[in-house]
Design brief:
By secondary structure, this protein is α+β, with helices and mostly antiparallel strands. The chain has helices spanning 3-16, 52-67, 117-131, 135-146; strands at residues 18-26, 30-37, 43-49, 72-73, 76-77, 81-85, 90-93, 100-101, 108-109, 150-151, 160-161. The two termini are 27 Å apart.
Length: 167
Amino acid sequence: MDEELVNLARQYALTRGITLHERLGFGIHGIVFAAEDKVKPGFFAVKFHREHVPFTRECRAYQRLHEEQVTRILGFNVPQLLRIDEEWHAIEMTIVPRPFLLDFADAFLDRPPDFSEDVLTQWEQDKQEIFGKKWPAVTEVLAAIRVFGIHLLDINPANIAFGEPSD
């Protein structure tokens, strides 16, 4: 785990008056913790990004979904934006149960990525292999979110999660 990012998360929690709990996820772009506000009851997620570009992409995607009042896409729960802190590269959002769709750090807004046909074909083959028999459902979700101008690239079973973990 990235100790520098964890320390940043701890400092953020102190400045915001929140308590960090278990780690919900981590990856190339950052780390996500469950958090609790000391004033308001309930838990939420807070994601800390390593770099500015993925942070900005994710913020823009969550802002778009918030403006469009999207809470579900084809039965997949979508986290709701609660707060963005640009100084800390932090995004606070609701925690959603499976099935869910999340992680928009590699999303392109209003235009697909400018990749060659060969690269796109290879990407699709790789993703099809990862999702197996669920690939048709994944392609439907990708098409449904493109209606909002969001083109997802970082798709895997941790970001597009079906019902139960064993599904």
